[in-house]
Design a protein that fits this description.
The chain contains no helices and 5 strands. The chain is mainly β. A hairpin with a 2-residue loop joins strand 1 and strand 2. The protein is elongated and about 45 Å long.
């Protein structure tokens, strides 16, 4: 299985059982993201815009049927 960015999440022996996408926000100032708040689970399509001076940290966690987990994290900054 591959997402649009070409990241492959596949374990030939176990298979992907669950995936969870979360986002946490922080203020952006002086080229640095501040302290992130508590992550919330995203259902549906994530927002495509947001307020200026904000950082968003997205985490996708995939877990296979035997309990192995992998986490992908990316940060989006809007000055």
């Amino acid at each position: 299985m591959a997402d649009r960015a070409g990241v492959h999440l596949h374990d030939g022996g176990a298979g992907l059982a669950t995936s969870v996408l979360t986002v946490a926000t922080a203020t952006y100032s002086g080229g640095v993201c501040g302290t992130y708040g508590t992550p919330t689970v995203i259902t549906g399509t994530p927002a495509q815009s947001g307020p200026p001076a904000t950082c968003w940290r997205y985490q996708l966690t995939g877990t296979d049927i035997v309990g192995n987990a992998s986490v992908l994290t990316t940060t989006v900054r809007r000055p």
